[in-house]
Design goal:
binds ligand LGGBLMCM, 279 residues, 8 helices, alpha/beta, Peroxisomal_t2-enoyl-CoA_red, fatty acid biosynthesis, globular, lipid metabolism, binds NADPH dihydro-nicotinamide-adenine-dinucleotide phosphate, Rossmann fold
Length: 279
Amino acid sequence: MSELLESLWQHDTAFRSDLFAGKVALVCGGGSGIGRATAVLFARLGATVVITGRTQEKLDAVVDFAVKKGARMHGFAAQLREHEQVVTLFEKIEAEVGVPDLLVNSAGGQFPQDAIDLSPKGWNAVITNNLNNTWFVMQRAAQRWRDLKRGGSIVNVIVVLERGMPGVAHTQAARAGIVGAMRTVAVEWAPLGIRVNCVAPGLTASEGLDVYPPEAVAEFPLANPFKRPGTPMEIAESCVFLSAPAASFITGETLTVDGGGKLWGELWLAGRPEWYRTP
Ligand SMILES: CCCCC/C=C/C(=O)SCCNC(=O)CCNC(=O)[C@H](O)C(C)(C)COP(=O)(O)OP(=O)(O)OC[C@H]1O[C@@H](n2cnc3c(N)ncnc32)[C@H](O)[C@@H]1OP(=O)(O)O
Ligand SMILES: NC(=O)C1=CN([C@@H]2O[C@H](COP(=O)(O)OP(=O)(O)OC[C@H]3O[C@@H](n4cnc5c(N)ncnc54)[C@H](OP(=O)(O)O)[C@@H]3O)[C@@H](O)[C@H]2O)C=CC1
């Protein structure tokens, strides 16, 4: 783990080292994968960072590393599907750290299953985990910014929607909901000085891939024309760009970071069905 964190810390970046000095960044899902890379990058660029997720130990490992590097980072556990926990989380952050200026929502996940077999409980679990949690957090941030008469930036990490994604219909539906909400509030919240954007990663080498069956994993190199997964830092750089002043005129937009997977590639997350095998 410390090797991985060290490589994130050393990774080349185009951004200025004091870009976010004086800012507080909240990264949901910051204990692993894309969220962890984003949190580490914010910390390297001078932000005070708060990471959240359900598992305190995962958060502590990232916080301990960052603090040893001289960065300012805090880890507060929360179940973001529960609105009350989101409200309490914001109260705790404001009391102990300060009001976040920047929000990156990278908390989420799903399991692979053919859509025809999804149970109502499984559908609801994934919708709640990817639509409700993101919405609760972005709305709470916006409410606090409105109350305090200050703006902010929100970046939601979603999935690529253009071609559908066999094996994860539930998550596609949830993320499409986020895009609809994002485009709507980009207009409603512009007068409040709030920008809202999404980053849509392609296949990315994170712990999150551990839930996919071996036959799906074996074909992951077919997901895009580079024939490799992206790295969490390749996604993090886009999250940070959209949070930065360099993106001050960008709102309601989705930035796809998928190595061209939208244009060429195949991804069968629950395994390739017989019909789509070559004869
Ligand atoms: C462009 C490329 C994109 C593709 C690659 C994408 C990769 C990633 O997104 S990686 C990132 C994310 N990380 C994860 O996905 C983490 C793993 N997933 C989960 O934690 C769960 O899937 C969860 C999101 C559903 C967790 O919700 P929770 O409410 O805790 O779920 P339960 O375990 O209680 O299950 C509720 C219900 O859901 C059904 N179900 C859950 N897992 C499976 C499964 N593996 N297969 C089939 N059905 C599943 C099931 O109905 C569960 O109820 P019970 O039957 O009563 O257990
Ligand atoms: N890796 C990939 O190929 C791709 C990933 N994505 C999306 O990007 C996002 C980040 O994924 P990635 O970093 O790869 O995967 P990870 O599983 O590593 O990251 C997801 C993080 O979200 C946290 N989390 C999940 N559900 C909740 C919840 N209800 N409340 C609080 N925290 C939660 C998890 O922590 P904990 O379990 O401790 O709560 C975990 O740290 C996800 O939305 C994912 O679906 C999109 C496209 C491709």
